[in-house]
Structures are given as structure tokens and as C-alpha cells.
Amino acid sequence: DGGITQSPKYLFRKEGQNVTLSCEQNLNHDAMYWYRQDPGQGLRLIYYSQIVNDFQKGDIAEGYSVSREKKESFPLTVTSAQKNPTAFYLCASTLTGRGQPQHFGDGTRLSIL
Amino acid sequence: QQQVKQSPQSLIVQKGGISIINCAYENTAFDYFPWYQQFPGKGPALLIAIRPDVSEKKEGRFTISFNKSAKQFSLHIMDSQPGDSATYFCAASPGGSRLTFGEGTQLTVNP
């Protein structure tokens, strides 16, 4: 079955620690996205990538970093510079072109220890 | 200019009733307007989407109404069922690229 796999489902971060969230897709989609979801604030775009080895900052990129070395994979690192990392993180992918729907994974919930 | 405003924040409807969620936008470059449904602990799933060249699109019990001059669009859920209880997000994008999401509406359908 084609889809987007996010792991782990739950993650805990200690003070001063960097953590990496995994996102893998087997839909052969070109573009991939990372969103942060907080209660009552909808989804906010962190980073996105439309092609391998290229990515752009979204609206709330500070304290986060990404890489796109393979088409299938778009890992997100939450660095120690992100002072309020507790949130639900969602990865999405889509084909490029007008009106292509974004498909989402089932998210990773990150909490501070 | 990039914001999408969604209302209400929460909605309670009786089974069989009509659920209506509204969204408004400012950016006239937006030309793709999807609605997503999200259950707790899951990622959002595309429900229905519309382009500004049509005023209404219907898929089963779900209808999007679009008013280009007012820069507003809405989701109507007819014959609402308890299984429709979820969070609904409207979104918009220019040319199908990055989406801007509304704040979400938590819908509860009472049996």
C-alpha cells in the first residue's frame, strides 16, 4: 500500500537535545512538507521541498532543520534552539502541479521531558 | 494576506442536521481550496476541494460553496452523522503549491 510513514509516533526530548523525526513516502511524490500543529492554531508550515537536494523555509522554520537527500525521505530535526517544541508534527507529500492534493502521515507527537 | 480565517472554532450538531463551516481569505492569488478532515491522533485526510471557476461542488453528503467576490467558501455536511465528528480544516493555495490552513473547527455530532 502506498502512503506516508512517520516515526516514531511519540518522542520525548530532553533539554539541550536535538531530535530527528522521520518521514518516508512510497507515493513517488516530488514535493514534501513538514507542519506543526498546536491546539487551536491549525497547521503551520515549517519547511518544504519540491525536489531532491533543495528545500525552502516555511512560516516557522526557526529552530528546525531538514534534509532531502532522497526523493522518498524528508527528515526533520528539532534543534535545542526551538524553545517550545511540544507539538504534533505532520509530514505531507504531493505531486507537483496545480490542484494536486497533499497526503499526510499520521504524525509524531513530541513532548519535553 | 496569507491568512485563511475559519469559523466557528467548535460546532455541535444533532444527528441528521446540517453542519456548516465557513472560511474567508484575502489573497486573490489563491486558486485551490481543499477541505481536510482529521480524527484524533491521525493526519488530516482530503475531503473535497474546489477551484474558483465553479460556485459549488458536491460529493455525497459534503458540499463546498464558493463565493469569489466575497472571498469566502464554506463546507456543508448534510445529514450529519456521529462518525463525522472530527476536526475540519479549510485551506488555500496559489497554483497548488504550499497550503495555508485555517485554524480548524471541532465538529461534534450528537446521536
SSE layout:
The complex is a heterodimer of chains A (113) and B (111).
Chain A: E1 4-7, E2 10-13, E3 19-25, E4 31-37, E5 43-51, E6 54-57, E7 64-66, E8 76-78, E9 87-94, E10 103-104, E11 108-112
Parallel strand pairs in A: 2-11
Antiparallel strand pairs in A: 1-3, 3-8, 4-5, 4-9, 5-6, 7-8, 9-10, 9-11
Chain B: E1 4-7, E2 10-14, E3 19-25, E4 33-38, E5 45-50, E6 56-59, E7 62-67, E8 72-77, E9 86-92, E10 100-101, E11 105-110
Parallel strand pairs in B: 2-11
Antiparallel strand pairs in B: 1-3, 3-8, 4-5, 4-9, 6-7, 7-8, 9-10, 9-11
Largest interchain contact: A-B, 28 and 25 residues
Strand content of chain B: over 45%
Structural class of chain B: mainly beta
Q: Are there runs of chain B of 5+ residues with pLDDT below 50, and where?
A: none
Number of strands of chain A: 11
Specify the overall morphology of chain B: globular
Q: What does the largest sheet of chain A look like?
A: 7 strands, mixed
Helix content of chain B: under 10%
The oligomerization state is heterodimer
**Secondary-structure element order of chain B, N to C:** EEEEEEEEEEE
Helix content of chain A: under 10%
Number of strands of chain B: 11
Number of helices of chain B: 0
Mean pLDDT metric of chain B? 94
**Amount of beta strand of chain A:** over 45%
Integer-rounded radius of gyration of chain A: 13 Å
Based on CA inertia axes, which overall geometry of chain A fits? globular
Question: Span between N and C termini of chain A?
Answer: 35 Å
Order of helices and strands of chain A: EEEEEEEEEEE
Please work out how many helical segments of chain A DSSP would assign: 0
Mean pLDDT of chain A: 93
